[in-house]
Every structure is written in structure tokens, then in C-alpha cells.
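Write out the 3D structure for:
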Amino acid sequence: MPNARISVVIGDITQLDVDAIVNAANESLLAGGGVCGAIHRAAGPDLEVECRRIGRCPTGEARITAGYRLPARYVIHAVGPAWQGGHRGEPELLGACYRNSLALAQQHGLSSIAFPAISTGIFGYPLQAATGIALAEARRWISEQPKPERVIFCCFSDRDAAIYSAALAAAS
């Protein structure tokens, strides 16, 4: 039976009405391309001001800001690794992104969090491998912690959602 606390949706993460959305950020925390650029555009200029105030965020770590003009109250900025063949600590760093994001959600008492497919865009992480890490970290977290109550994986395409859904079903 699938875990009711984890779900997969297809859509625009900037439109989700959840406590926090996760930004697939770069170390500067400033607007980039893909999901990061879309989140910054939707949140408005105050997000960049807060990100500049925070400063850099090392790969594998996460920082939290307000959501500003987003439906989500918060944005958790997680810096995933660039894929370099998988032998330079990429799996550990990607797992740390998810753990650190979930820990921030818990520390702020958040009930719901939505993740994009961190590192799978311009950072080139293979989607299948990244999906396995993302789901393993989410399952481990929710088996041990009460918050967040809901973990959503927001996919931009049908193809990505099918990979996440199949991996989630196989693990149940």
C-alpha cells in the first residue's frame, strides 16, 4: 500500500498551495534558469533581496525564506550537486538536500512541502537515480518524524511523474 504522506503531482510548483516549496537553487541563491528562475519570478523581487541577505549556501545544504507572492508561505532553497558521473559524492550531497529541506520544514512546524526534481535539470543528474534518492530520503524521514505530514513531488512533465510514480509504487 502506498504511503499516503507522499504523493506525486504534475504541475507548476509555483502554483502549489503548500506550506513550503523547495527551490532547486544554486549556491548564490539568486535567480537562475529552470525551477529556480520560475520561483524567483513568481515570488517577486523581495525574494532576491532576502536571498542576497542570506548569502551563499553550500551544495547539499538548504536555507529558508518567505514565499512572498507565492501561494506557499516559505521557499526552502536546496543546492543540489552537479552530476559528474556519480563518483564525486553526488548521491550523498543530493540526499543531504532532501534531509536538510525536511529538517527545516520540521523546525518551522510546516505540515506540507513540495519538491521539484532537484539537480535533474541543468545540473544533469540522471532522473531515475535522483528519483530513487529523493523517495528514499522522504520515506525514511516520514517513518521517523511527524512533520511535515505531507511530502509532494511536483513534476513538470508526464514523463517525470511516471518515473516518480513507478518508483513510489515499487517501494510500497
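The helical segments are 34-43, 45-54, 90-107, 127-144, 158-171.
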